[in-house]
Amino acid sequence: MGTAPGTGTHDSPGAGSGTARPPARSRLKETAMSNALTIRDATDADALPIAALMLQAGEGLYEFLLDGLVPDLSAQAILAHLIEAGDGPLGWPECRVAEREGQVLGMVNAFPVERLDELALDMIPLDRTTHLAPLFQARDPGSFYLSTMAVVPTQRGVGIGVALIAEVLGMAGARKIPRVSLHVWSTNKGAIALYERLGFTITGQVTLPSHDRLSARRALLMARAV
């Protein structure tokens, strides 16, 4: 349906004291060992917790797109259906979850950026897609796109976000895609700090027109090499 510039995580690692930090993918193993955290492929059974986390990350984006499309179905229910169906870029095959003791604590959805063209925007009212068109069009061609990432609020700050980003870097590397790109709302200072500490740089920005149903207006485009 759309991208989620707000990552829904302030999982920023602490600043070092002159000691070099290992690469993000190396820290994935350290995080998993120290916290008994598992990063695994999502399944269709994860659709509900993934949808809840996606809504958290979007900061109103998915509600803006999906509210009222199907009578008696919330934006979260519609999003869960799309995830469970599994045939689009938001589907469960393109998601990974962070899990501890059977509980989903975080998620990430990422795919080759060209798959943005597969989003079923024809089911969305034209005024909504037109409003968000600058966001959909601002992309890094040839990159692996981190569409949405979120961590349960009570679990932030313990390395889950770092582990999920490391997983995305691994996904991109496995497909021989040289860069990872993403959007993040400019108001999400914690997420921006996390991305910058992991090597992402700002490569562009998008300012949306004001709208009473979407508070966020400015999104940053960020990218880093794999």
From TrEMBL:
This is GCN5-related N-acetyltransferase. It comes from Pararhodospirillum photometricum DSM 122. The keyword Transferase applies. Keywords: Transferase. Residues 1-26 are annotated as: Disordered. GO terms for molecular function: N-acetyltransferase activity. Residues 37-226 form the N-acetyltransferase domain.
